[in-house]
Amino acid sequence: MAKKFACRDIGLECDFEAESESREELMQKIAEHAKSAHGMEQIDEATMAKVEAAIKDAPAEEEEEEEEEAASAAAPEQAEDEQ
Ligand SMILES: [Zn+2]
Fold this sequence. Notes:
Elements: E1 3-6, E2 17-20, H1 23-38, H2 45-54, E3 56-57
Antiparallel strand pairs: 1-2, 1-3
Bound molecules: zinc ion (ZN).
Zinc ion binds next to α1.
């Protein structure tokens, strides 16, 4: 099952989200992001524990949130030609 992680889940004000088929790959993405975005050359143990705890299983199929908009079928009013 795919795994996902979001910085927000560990209390960071950051919109980064990563998803991967394997935990190893996900950790790699997180490490790269931590380095480039948060200046962490290495993720320390305390942070790593938080990251591990925040990793969730991602559903195989993406949830599609479809907003149903009620299409108004009202025909445009046609002005009658005055003679
Ligand atoms: Zn981040």
